[in-house]
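=== RUN LOG ===
request id: a7f3
mode: sequence -> structure
chains: 1
length: 259
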Amino acid sequence: MLAFVRSTILSGLTALSLIAAPLRAGAADQVTVFAAAALTNALDAVAERWQAETGHRVLMSYAGSSALARQIEGGAPADIFISASVDWMDALDVSGDLRAGTRRDILGTRLVLIAHGQGADAVSLDESLDLLAMLDGGKLSMSLVDAVPSGVYGRAALESLGLWEAVAPQVVQSYNVRSALAFVAMGEAPLGIVYATDAVVEDNVSVIGTFPETSHPPIILPAAITAQSRSPVAEAFLDFMNSEPAREIWADHGFELIE
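=== RESULT ===
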C-alpha cells in the first residue's frame, strides 16, 4: 500500500486567508493568483517585479494543481490559475471556469531524481536502474501519483522504464511537489522525484538523474484568467508573465520558456 505524508504547506485557501482577509476576487488594483507550488520562488520574483513597476498588488496562493483546480471549481476567489499540468487546466476549461481566449502555455521544466544531501553520485535513468536497491529499505518521496502533476509524471516515467512495480510499496506521497522535496531535504527519504526547477532551490539535495523526456508526457505549465475574475489588472499581469523582464526571471530559475 502506498503511504501518505501530510503537506507542510498550507492549503490554498488557508494560505490566502493569511495574506489578506477579507478577500474577494477582482478587488481594485489587485490580482489573486492560484499557482502550482513548483512556481513558488520564481513566481514570487515575477510578482515582486510587477508590483514594483505598476504599484498593483498580487496575492498568491500556492498548492498542488489538483487542489487549486478543485477550489476554483468550488468558487474560490482566484483571478488567475497557473497549473503544472494541462490536464487540470483542461478540467477547468470543460467546467466553464476559465475566461475564453486567455489560456496560454507559458513554461516547461524537467523531471529529476534527487538524493538527500550534496555530492550524491549520478545514475542513468533507464531500464537497468535498480532503484529498489538504491532505496535500501527507505522511501521514495513523490507527490500524489494519481492527482498532483509531478507525481503523475513521476509514476508515468517509472512505469515507462519498468521500475514502478518494484518501488511502488516504498513510495511516500505528499500533497504538492515542494513537500515531496522537503521530505528528501530533511532526510526522511533518501530519494525523491521532483521538477528540476524545485531541486535548484534546495541546498540539501542532489540531482542524480534526469528522466528521459520520452518517459512521460510533456511537462507544460499553462496559465489562464478564471471566468469569475473581476480584477481590472488580471490581464495585465497575465501578459507581464510573458514579458522580457519576467522571462529573464523564469530562465534564472531554470524554467524552459515556451514561445
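=== NOTES ===
The two ends are 42 Å apart (CA to CA).
DSSP finds eleven helices and twelve strands in the chain.
=== END ===
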